[in-house]
C-alpha cells in the first residue's frame, strides 16, 4: 500500500492523559466551531453527528462501589500506516506531507465511504445532509477550514491550518518554518482543554514535550496490534484503562 | 422501397455532407459560442488605475501587505485607500471623477469596495503568500502595474470562479519544477 | 430538399462527433464537479484579516477571560485568554459559546411588550416610558431577581432598588448563596474562596468544582498544575458525593455519600481530627467538640452515610498528614445545598487551621462599590430566594408590584417549578432583561433585551470560589447585532429620568471609576505573576495604577490577594446541633455539566453534540442508577420510568451506571426547556421541578439538593 | 393492421406470447414499483444520503450488499460465456442468452445503485480521472465499467437479432459480425469479471484494521479476492437456472430443457464444492490466526440475534454443504425440488456472505470500549433497491417477449 509506514522528518503527535480528562466536552465544542461544523438540532443521535473530536466514556465493568469511569477523547489517529488511505479510490485522502497528518480533501472526495469502513476508530464522518447554520450564525464561520457540502467524508486534521499559520508567522519573522518551537503549533482542542490533559508537538523532536511523553511507560496507543501505527498517544496509570486501549485475549497482559 | 432507393441515390454524399455540417457546427458552437455562454463579464466597481499609482513610485507591497501573523491581507481596505483619498477632488477629469466616486460611495460612508478579485483561490485552498515572496508578483498575477484600467473580470457561471483562478495543475507543475512538495495539505484546507 | 431521416442522423452524428472535439463535454464535466465545491447554498468562509481581541465571559459562571478571534473585524470564535488568571487558555463550553450565541435563534431582537398574551415589538422609548410609570406607581414595591450580583451591573440594579427603597434584591441560587449565609452564621466576614492551587490534599464535599461549581476553569487549571503531564502529581484529590461525576472522575478517590449526608460525613471526619488532637480557638470549640463526639462517632456516621469507618479514618488521616489540606463544601449540582452543610464542611478547615492560609479557605474582602447605596454581593447572596418566592406564592409575603429579572431565568432554574411559577404570576408587572427568549421572559410583561457579552461593557468581579479578588473588563467587540441595550445603561438612564440619579451616566463610566478606585487598593495586574503564586509567598509584582484601565482593556485581570482577618469566627455549633440529616429511600442527585448551559442560556447550539446519549436520547432525559437500585425498582437498561417529587413528575429512561451510589437517581440538569429555540426545546425534562424545596433545620434556609424522589 | 396484430410481428419466430393487455398490466405493476423508487432516488439526489438509514457506523448498508450480491449472482454471464465460447461446452448455447441478459441487468442495476450511493454523483468520473491504483475500489470501478461495456457488446447482437430489427441490413451485419468475435469478448469478459469479482472481495480482505474482514493473501490479493470469484461462479449459474425456472413458471412455457439446467447447476455445484473447501480453510485460518493476533476470539465476532452465529452456520453449513450434496449427487439433482432448493440455498449463502462482509464487518466494535450497533435499511434504500429489481423485471420481460433468448423454446412447446 502506498502509505505503509512512511516516515517523515516531522511527526506531529498528540498525547492525551486520560487520567486528567474530566469529560467536559470543551475540546469537542472548540473543534466544531474552529472547523466549521454546523450545530445540529438533534445531536442525540450520535450515529449522525459530525464529531471529529469525540469523547468516549470508559467503564471498568465493575459494580458499585468498585466501578470507575474514565473519559477518552478520540481525534483522528493520523496513523503511520493508515487503513483509510490505500482504500480511497480517488486519492481524496493521503498521507504524503511532512508531519504525517492524514489529509482529507473535500472537493476531491466522491463520498463512497470506503475509508469509513476501513477506519476502526470511527474517526471519519460523512455529511449526510448539507450543513445548515441558524440564520446569521454563518457569520461565525472561520476562514480556517473550508465548509463542506453534504456527501463528502471529513475528519480531524490536527487543525492543520494552524500549522500553516505558524509556518507563515515564522516566515515573516524570518525564523525556520520547518523547525517550529514547541507550542508554536497547537490544535484548538489542546489549546482550550481546561485540565491540560493534552499535549501536542513533534514526536521526533526531543525539544518538544510530546517526545518524552510518548516514550513514557504509561503511554500507549489505540489498537496498536492492528499495525495502524497511530500518531496519537494516550497515557494512564490505571491498568483497566490501558487494557481498553486494545483487544487482548483473556490470558494476555496489556 | 422507392424511398429507400432515393436515399441510396443521393444519399451517401448527402449524409457525408450533413455529417460535416454537423461536425463543423459543433466545433463553432463548442469553441466560440460556448465560452461566451459559460463566462459572464463584470467590470470593477471603481476604475482603479494601477498604472497611475505605480507611477507615483508605489510598489505592490505598499498596498498589498502582510499582517504580523504572516497572513497576506490581499486588497487594501477602504480605510487605507482613504488615507490618501480622504476627500473629493472636485475635478473633472475621468480619473478625478473616479476618485470622487470612490470617496463619496465608499470612503465617506465607510463601506468596503466590492472589488472583483481575479485570482481568488477556492475556499478549500490555503495559499501562503509568505512562502512565495521570493517570486515576482507578475509570475502569477497579471502585470496590472502597466494597466490604466483594470481588465474585465470573467466569472464562470457554473463553477462561480474567476476565469483567471489558477488551476491546480498549474500549482502542481511549479511545485514539481521547484522540488517543492505536492502533498495535498500543502495547499488544501 | 427536405431533411430525410438518414440526413438528419448524419447531421446529429456529425454534431455529436464534433462536440467531442470541443471543450463542451470536458469543460462541463469539470466545471460541474467544481460547482459541487461551490454550492450557493453552502456558506463561504470569510476572507479578511484574522485578529484577536480580549474580553471575559458573562454567560459562563466561572468568569473566564476570553480571547476572541475576529475575521475582518467580525467575531468568529472564542478561546480562553492565556493571560487571564481564571482561564489560562482554558475555556468551558459555555465560554466558547459567547460568539455563536450572538446569532442564537432565541435572541430577543427588540424590546417587546406583551399585549393580550402576545409579544409585540416596541421602541426603547415606549418601553422606558411604560417602565417608569409602573415603577413610580409601585413605589418601593420593586423586586429584582438577578443572576449576576457580583459585578458592577448588579451593583447598579441594587443601587436602583435601594434608591426606590426596596431591599428585595435576590440572587439566583448557586454555591455562593449557602456559602455566604453559612459564613455569616459562623460569624465570618468577607466572601469564602478556596486556594486549590496551593493545597496538596483536597477533600471535595459534593461540589462539582471542575464543572458547575465556582471558578471551574481556574480549578481545573490548578488541577492541571498539580498533575503535570508525565510527572508525579503534587496534590491528592478525593471526592465525596452521590455520583462519580466529572469532578469525581479525575479524583484519586470517590467516597459515595448522599447529598443530604455530606454534613454528617464532614462531622464524622471532624470526629477523627478531634480525636487526633485538632483544636481551634473558636469561641464555641467546646460545644462543637461535644456535639461531634456525641453525635458523629464513626459507627453512627457509618450507619447513616454507609461510609466504611475505615474509609472515614483514612480520609481524616490523609488530611491530617497533609501540609496544606483543604476541604471544599458544595452541592453536586451547584445549587440546593443548605448553609448547615457548608458550615459542617468549613468546620474541617477551621479545625485544621486552614482559614486564610495558602492552600486553604480564604475570606476575601468585598470590592469597593461605585454606586452608593448598593448592597454587597454577600448580603444579597445570603438571602433565600426560593423561600421568598414560596412565601409570595402562599401569600405569606406580599408580591412586589414590579419585578426585574436580570441575567436569570427563575421560571426554569428554581426547584418546585409549579410553586415558583405561581409566585411569579402574582407579580402584576414583570420585566425581563433577558438576551434570549427564556421561560421567564416568556412570562414577562416587558422584555428589554440586554446586549450580549461581546456587545457590551460589563465586568466580572471575583466569581464565587476564587481564592483571590479579581476584576476583568468586558468590553464590546461588535456593535449590537439587534436592537438591544446594555441593561445597566438603560437602568442608569431610567433612574436619571425618574430623578433617582445613581451617580453615573453609563456603565462604562462606572467601570472607569471602579478601575480608578481599585487602582488605589492593594492589588496588581496579573500577567507574569499570578495571584496564587503571591499567596504562596512570591513577591507581589509592581504595577502602574495609572495604567489599570488600559490593562483592563487589554484583557488582563486586576487581582488582589488579601484576606479578611476574622474576629469572632465560630463553628456555629448551635446550627450544627440542629442539623437533622434526612433519610430518603431514593434521592435525586443532579449532574450539571457546563455543556448543558445555564438556565439563562438554554442549551448552547454547538454543545448539543458534546452532550452524550447517556444524558439525552431521542428527546428523552436519561437518568442513571446503579444495578442494585435498578433491580429494586424493577428497571433495566433503557426502561422507561417516571420520577415524581413535590412539584410533579418527570418521564425518563434508565441508564445503568455503577458510578452512582445505591439509592440515588442521578439526573442530568439543564434540559426540558419550554422556551428558547429548537436547540433547547423538546429535549428531556427539567428535574428541578420535581425537587422538593424543604427547610434546613437550624438555618431555616430552603434546600433541595438530594431531595427525595419516587419512581412510578 | 391493428396495433395489437402488429405487435405480434415483433415476437421471436414461432412462439406465442400472452396478450398485450396482460403484458401491459404486468409492466404497469413493475413501473409502479420503479416509479416509487425514482421518487426515493429524487429525495436522495436532492437532500442527500441522509434520507437513508445509513449512519456513521454503517457507511455501507443495503445498497452495497445488494450490489455485491447481484454482481455475484450475475456472474452466470461471464462464467457461462467462458464455458460456452472458450471451453466450448456447446450445450450451454441454449441458456447463454439468458445468462447474458441477467448479467447485463445485474451490472447496470449495480451501477445505478452506485450513482446514488456515492455522496457526490457529479464527481463520479473522478474514479477514472484521479484513480488511486492501490485501492481495490479503483479496480472495481474500472473492471465493472469495462465489463459492463463488454456486456453491452454481448447484448447488442441479441437485440439486433430481434425479428424486425434484423431486417435492417446494417443491424443484421453488426449482429452477425459480433457473433463471430464473441469468443474474444467472452474471454475479455471472463478476465475482467474475474478481476472485479475478486477485487470486490479484496475490498474487504484488505481492511487490515477490521478484524472481521481482514485476510492474508497472495501477492496483493487477500484470500477474499479468490473466495469472492469462486463464490460468484458457484452461484451465477444457479441464479441463471432459477431465473429461467421462474420465467417458465410465470409464462407456463418450457424455455430450456431440464438437461441444460441440470448441467448448469452441476457446474455451479462443483464450483460451490471448491469454494466450500477454500472457504472452510479460510475460516479456520481466520479463527486460529488472524483473530488471536488481533487479540480477539471467535465468540467476540458475534452479537445478539442479528449478528448471531446462526448466520454463519446458515452460510457455511446449510448454504454450502446441503447444496453441494444436492447438486453433485446425480440422483438428487435429477429431482427438480432438490435441484431448485439447492440453487436457492446456494444463492442465499452468497447473499449472506456479501451481507456479513459488508455489515457485520463494520458492526463489530474494534475499540474495546465501543459497542455493537445495529443497522436497518429504511424506506429510501428499500424503494431504490426494489426500483432496480423492477428495472430488471421490465428488461427481462421485454427481452423475453421480443428477443430470441431461448433457442429451444419453439421445439419444446410444439
Summarize the structure in words.
The complex is a heterotetramer of chains A (254), B (189), C (712) and D (414). With 254 residues, chain A is an alpha+beta fold. Chain A has helices at residues 26-34, 114-118, 160-173, 188-192, 209-214, 239-243; strands at 12-17, 54-59, 69-74, 93-94, 103-104, 124-126, 153-155, 198-202, 219-220, 232-235. In chain A, the strands form four sheets. Chain A has a four-stranded mixed sheet. In chain A, a hairpin with an 8-residue loop joins β4 (93-94) and β5. The mean pLDDT of chain A is 94. Helix content of chain B is 44%, strand content 4%. Chain B is built from seven helices and two strands, in the order αβααααβαα. Chain B has helices spanning 2-38, 50-55, 60-63, 78-84, 94-107, 168-178, 184-187; strands spanning 39-42, 153-156. The radius of gyration of chain B is 25 Å and the shape is extended. Chain D is an all-alpha fold. Chain D has one domain (17-407): Formate dehydrogenase/DMSO reductase domain (Formate dehydrogenase/DMSO reductase fold, Up-down Bundle). Chain D is built from 16 helices and two strands. In chain D, α3 packs antiparallel against α5 (93-117) and α3 runs antiparallel to α14. Chain D is globular. The model of chain D has no long low-confidence stretch (mean pLDDT 93). Chain A binds chain B through residues 91, 94, 96-98, 101, 103, 105-107, 144-147, 157, 160-161, 164-165, 167-173, 177, and chain B through 66, 68-71, 122-124, 126, 128, 130-131, 133, 181, 183-186, 188-189.
Amino acid at each position: 500500500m502506498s502509505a505503509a509506514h512512511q516516515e517523515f522528518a516531522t511527526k506531529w503527535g498528540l498525547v492525551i492523559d486520560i487520567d486528567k480528562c474530566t469529560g467536559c466536552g470543551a475540546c469537542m465544542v472548540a473543534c466544531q466551531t474552529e472547523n466549521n461544523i454546523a450545530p445540529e438540532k438533534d445531536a442525540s443521535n450520535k450515529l449522525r453527528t459530525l464529531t471529529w473530536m469525540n469523547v468516549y466514556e470508559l467503564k471498568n465493568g465493575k459494580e458499585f462501589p468498585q466501578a470507575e469511569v474514565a473519559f477518552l477523547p478520540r481525534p483522528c489517529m493520523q496513523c503511520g500506516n493508515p487503513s483509510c488511505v490505500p482504500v480511497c479510490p480517488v486519492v481524496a485522502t493521503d498521507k504524503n506531507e511532512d508531519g504525517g497528518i492524514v489529509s482529507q480533501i473535500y472537493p476531491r472526495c466522491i463520498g463512497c465511504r470506503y475509508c469509513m469502513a476501513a477506519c476502526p476508530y470511527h474517526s471519519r464522518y460523512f455529511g449526510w445532509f448539507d450543513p445548515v447554520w441558524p440564520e446569521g450564525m454563518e457569520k461565525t464561520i472561520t476562514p480556517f477550514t473550508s465548509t463542506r457540502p453534504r456527501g463528502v467524508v471529513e475528519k480531524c486534521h490536527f487543525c492543520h491550518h494552524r500549522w500553516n499559520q505558524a509556518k507563515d508567522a515564522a516566515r515573516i519573522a524570518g525564523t525556520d518554518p520547518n523547525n517550529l518551537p514547541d507550542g508554536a503549533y497547537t490544535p484548538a482542542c489542546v489549546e482550550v482543554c481546561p485540565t491540560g490533559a493534552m499535549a501536542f508537538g513533534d514526536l521526533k523532536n526531543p525539544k518538544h514535550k510530546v517526545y518524552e511523553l510518548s516514550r513514557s511507560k504509561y503511554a500507549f496507543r489505540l489498537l496498536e496490534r492492528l499495525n495502524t501505527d497511530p500518531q496519537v498517544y494516550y497515557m494512564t496509570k490505571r491498568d483497566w484503562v490501558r487494557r481498553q486501549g486494545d483487544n487482548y485475549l483473556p490470558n494476555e497482559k496489556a | 422501397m422507392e424511398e429507400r432507393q432515393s436515399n441510396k441515390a443521393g444519399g451517401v454524399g448527402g449524409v457525408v455532407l450533413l455529417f460535416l455540417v454537423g461536425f463543423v457546427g459543433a466545433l463553432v458552437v463548442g469553441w466560440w459560442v460556448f465560452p461566451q455562454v459559460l463566462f459572464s463579464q463584470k467590470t470593477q466597481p471603481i476604475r482603479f488605475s494601477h498604472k497611475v499609482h505605480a507611477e507615483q513610485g508605489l510598489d505592490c507591497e505598499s498596498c498589498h501587505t502582510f499582517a504580523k501573523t504572516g497572513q497576506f491581507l490581499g486588497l487594501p481596505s477602504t480605510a487605507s485607500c482613504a488615507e490618501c483619498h480622504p476627500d473629493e477632488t472636485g475635478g473633472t477629469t475621468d480619473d478625478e471623477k473616479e476618485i470622487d466616486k470612490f470617496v463619496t460611495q465608499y470612503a465617506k460612508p465607510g463601506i468596503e469596495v466590492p472589488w472583483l478579485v481575479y485570482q481568488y483561490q477556492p475556499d478549500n485552498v490555503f495559499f501562503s503568500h509568505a512562502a512565495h515572496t521570493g517570486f515576482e508578483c507578475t509570475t502569477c498575477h497579471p502585470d496590472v502595474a502597466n494597466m490604466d484600467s483594470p481588465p474585465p473580470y470573467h466569472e464562470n457561471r457554473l463553477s462561480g470562479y474567476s476565469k483567471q483562478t489558477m488551476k491546480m495543475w498549474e500549482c502542481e507543475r511549479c511545485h514539481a519544477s521547484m522540488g517543492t512538495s505536492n502533498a495535498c495539505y500543502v495547499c488544501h484546507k | 430538399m427536405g431533411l430525410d431521416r438518414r440526413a438528419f442522423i448524419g447531421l446529429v452524428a456529425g454534431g455529436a462527433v464534433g462536440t467531442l472535439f470541443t471543450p463542451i463535454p470536458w469543460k462541463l464535466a469539470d466545471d460541474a464537479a467544481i460547482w459541487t465545491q461551490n454550492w450557493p447554498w453552502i456558506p463561504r468562509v470569510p476572507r479578511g484579516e484574522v485578529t484577536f481581541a480580549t474580553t471575559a465571559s458573562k454567560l459562563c459562571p466561572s468568569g473566564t477571560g476570553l480571547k476572541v478571534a475576529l475575521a475582518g473585524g467580525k467575531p468568529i470564535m472564542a478561546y480562553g485568554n492565556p493571560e487571564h488568571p481564571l482561564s489560562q487558555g482554558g475555556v468551558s463550553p459555555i465560554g466558547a459559546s459567547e460568539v455563536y450565541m450572538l446569532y442564537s435563534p432565541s435572541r430577543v431582537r427588540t424590546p417587546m411588550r406583551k399585549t393580550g398574551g402576545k409579544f409585540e415589538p416596541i421602541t426603547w422609548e415606549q418601553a422606558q416610558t411604560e417602565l417608569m410609570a409602573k415603577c413610580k406607581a409601585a413605589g418601593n414595591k420593586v423586586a429584582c431577581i438577578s443572576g449576576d450580583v457580583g459585578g458592577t451591573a448588579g451593583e447598579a440594579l441594587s443601587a436602583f432598588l435601594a434608591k426606590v427603597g426596596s431591599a428585595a434584591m435576590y440572587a439566583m441560587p448557586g454555591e455562593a448563596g449557602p456559602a455566604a449565609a453559612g459564613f455569616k452564621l459562623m460569624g465570618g466576614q468577607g466572601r469564602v474562596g478556596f486556594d486549590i492551587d496551593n493545597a496538596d490534599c483536597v477533600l471535595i464535599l459534593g461540589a462539582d468544582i471542575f464543572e458547575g461549581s465556582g471558578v471551574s476553569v481556574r480549578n481545573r487549571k490548578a488541577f492541571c498544575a498539580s498533575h503535570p503531564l508525565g510527572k508525579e502529581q503534587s496534590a491528592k484529590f478525593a471526592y465525596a458525593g452521590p455520583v462519580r461525576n466529572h469532578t469525581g472522575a479525575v479524583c484519586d478517590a470517590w467516597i459515595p455519600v448522599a447529598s443530604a449526608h455530606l454534613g454528617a460525613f464532614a462531622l464524622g471526619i471532624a470526629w477523627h481530627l478531634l480525636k487526633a488532637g485538632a483544636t481551634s480557638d473558636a469561641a464555641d470549640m467546646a460545644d462543637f467538640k461535644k456535639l461531634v463526639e456525641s453525635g458523629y462517632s464513626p459507627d453512627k456516621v457509618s450507619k447513616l452515610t454507609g461510609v466504611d469507618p475505615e474509609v472515614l479514618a483514612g480520609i481524616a488521616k490523609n488530611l491530617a498528614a497533609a501540609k496544606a489540606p483543604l476541604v471544599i463544601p458544595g452541592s453536586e449540582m451547584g445549587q440546593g445545598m443548605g448553609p448547615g452543610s457548608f458550615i459542617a464542611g468549613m468546620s474541617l478547615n477551621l479545625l485544621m487551621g486552614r482559614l486564610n492560609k495558602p492552600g486553604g479557605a480564604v475570606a476575601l474582602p468585598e470590592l469597593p462599590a461605585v454606586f452608593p447605596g448598593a448592597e454587597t454581593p454577600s448580603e444579597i447572596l445570603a438571602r433565600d430566594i426560593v423561600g421568598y418566592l414560596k412565601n409570595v406564592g402562599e401569600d405569606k409575603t406580599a408580591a412586589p408590584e414590579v419585578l426585574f429579572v436580570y441575567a436569570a431565568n427563575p421560571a426554569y432554574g428554581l426547584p418546585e417549578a409549579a410553586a415558583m411559577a405561581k409566585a411569579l404570576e402574582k407579580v402584576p408587572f414583570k420585566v425581563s432583561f433577558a438576551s434570549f427568549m427564556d421561560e421567564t421572559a416568556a412570562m414577562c410583561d416587558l422584555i428589554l433585551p440586554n446586549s450580549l457579552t461581546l456587545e457590551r461593557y460589563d465586568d466580572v468581579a471575583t466569581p464565587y470560589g476564587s481564592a483571590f479578588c479579581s476584576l476583568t473588563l468586558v468590553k464590546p467587540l461588535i456593535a449590537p447585532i439587534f436592537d438591544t441595550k446594555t441593561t445597566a445603561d438603560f437602568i442608569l438612564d431610567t433612574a436619571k429620568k425618574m430623578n433617582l440619579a445613581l451617580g453615573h451616566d453609563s456603565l462604562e463610566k462606572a467601570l472607569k471609576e471602579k478601575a480608578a478606585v481599585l487602582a488605589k487598593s492593594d492589588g496588581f495586574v496579573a500577567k507574569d505573576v499570578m495571584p496564587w503564586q503571591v499567596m504562596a509567598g512570591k513577591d507581589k509584582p509592581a504595577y502602574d495604577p495609572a495604567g489599570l484601565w488600559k490593562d483592563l482593556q487589554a484583557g488582563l485581570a486586576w487581582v488582589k490577594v488579601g484576606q479578611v482577618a476574622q474576629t469572632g469566627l465560630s463553628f456555629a455549633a448551635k446550627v450544627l446541633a440542629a442539623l437533622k440529616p434526612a433519610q430518603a429511600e431514593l434521592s435525586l442527585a443532579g449532574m450539571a455539566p457546563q455543556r448543558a448551559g445555564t438556565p439563562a442560556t438554554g442549551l448552547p447550539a454547538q454543545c448539543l453534540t458534546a452532550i452524550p446519549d447517556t444524558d439525552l436520547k431521542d428527546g428523552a432525559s436519561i437518568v442513571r442508577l446503579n444495578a442494585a437500585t435498578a433491580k429494586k425498582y424493577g428497571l433495566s437498561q433503557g426502561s422507561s420510568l417516571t420520577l415524581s417529587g413535590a412539584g410533579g413528575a418527570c418521564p425518563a429512561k434508565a441508564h445503568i451506571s455503577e458510578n452512582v451510589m445505591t439509592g440515588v437517581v442521578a439526573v442530568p440538569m439543564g434540559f426540558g426547556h419550554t422556551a428558547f429555540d429548537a436547540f433547547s426545546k423538546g429535549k428531556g425534562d427539567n428535574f428541578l421541578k420535581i425537587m422538593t424545596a424543604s427547610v434546613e433545620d437550624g438555618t431555616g434556609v430552603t434546600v433541595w439538593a438530594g431531595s427525595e424522589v419516587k419512581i412510578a | 393492421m391493428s396495433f395489437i396484430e402488429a405487435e405480434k410481428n415483433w415476437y421471436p419466430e414461432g412462439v406465442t406470447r400472452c396478450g398485450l393487455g396482460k403484458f401491459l398490466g404486468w409492466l404497469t405493476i413493475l413501473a409502479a414499483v420503479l416509479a416509487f423508487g425514482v421518487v426515493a432516488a429524487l429525495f436522495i439526489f436532492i437532500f442527500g444520503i441522509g434520507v437513508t438509514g445509513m449512519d456513521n457506523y454503517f457507511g455501507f448498508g443495503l445498497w452495497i450488499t445488494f450490489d455485491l450480491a447481484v454482481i455475484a449472482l450475475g456472474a452466470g454471464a461471464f462464467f457461462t460465456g467462458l464455458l460456452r465460447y472458450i471451453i466450448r461446452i456447446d450445450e450451454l448455447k441454449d441458456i447463454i442468452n439468458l445468462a447474458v441478459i441477467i448479467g447485463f441487468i445485474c451490472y447496470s442495476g449495480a451501477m445505478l445503485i452506485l450513482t446514488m450511493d456515492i455522496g457526490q454523483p457529479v464527481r463520479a468520473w473522478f474514479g477514472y480521472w484521479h484513480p488511486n491504483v492501490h485501492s481495490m475500489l479503483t479496480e472495481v470501478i474500472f473492471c465493472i465499467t469495462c465489463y459492463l461495456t463488454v456486456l453491452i457488446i454481448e447484448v447488442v447482437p441479441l437485440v439486433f437479432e430481434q425479428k424486425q430489427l434484423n431486417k435492417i441490413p446494417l443491424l443484421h451485419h453488426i449482429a452477425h459480425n459480433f457473433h463471430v468475435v464473441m469468443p474474444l469478448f467472452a474471454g475479455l469478459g471472463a478476465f475482467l469479471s474475474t478481476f472485479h469479482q475478486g477485487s470486490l472481495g479484496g475490498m474487504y480482505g484488505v481492511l487490515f484494521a477490521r478484524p472481521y474482514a481482514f485476510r492474508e493473501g497472495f501477492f496483493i490479493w487477500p484470500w477474499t479476492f479468490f473466495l469472492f470469484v469462486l463464490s460468484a461462479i458457484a452461484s451465477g449459474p444457479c441464479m441463471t437456472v432459477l431465473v429461467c425456472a421462474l420465467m417458465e413458471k410465470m409464462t407456463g412455457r418450457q424455455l430450456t430443457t431440464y438437461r441444460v439446467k441440470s448441467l448448469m447447476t452441476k457446474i455451479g455445484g462443483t464450483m460451490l464444492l471448491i469454494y466450500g473447501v477454500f472457504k472452510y480453510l479460510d475460516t479456520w485460518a481466520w479463527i486460529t490466526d488472524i483473530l488471536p493476533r488481533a487479540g480477539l476470539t471467535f465468540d467476540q465476532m458475534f452479537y445478539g440475534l442479528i449478528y448471531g452465529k446462526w448466520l454463519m452456520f446458515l452460510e457455511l453449513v446449510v448454504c454450502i454443504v446441503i447444496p453441494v450434496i444436492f447438486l453433485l449427487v446425480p440422483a438428487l439433482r435429477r429431482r427438480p425440488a432438490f435441484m431448485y432448493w439447492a440453487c436457492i440455498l446456494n444463492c442465499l449463502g452468497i447473499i449472506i456472505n456479501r451481507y456479513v462482509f459488508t455489515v457485520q464487518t463494520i458492526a463489530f466494535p474494534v475499540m474495546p470500549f465501543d459497542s455493537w450497533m445495529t443497522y436497518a435499511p429504511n424506506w429510501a434504500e428499500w424503494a431504490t433497491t426494489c426500483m432496480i429489481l423492477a428495472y430488471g423485471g421490465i428488461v427481462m420481460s421485454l427481452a423475453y417477449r421480443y428477443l430470441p433468448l431461448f433457442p429451444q423454446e419453439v421445439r419444446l412447446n410444439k
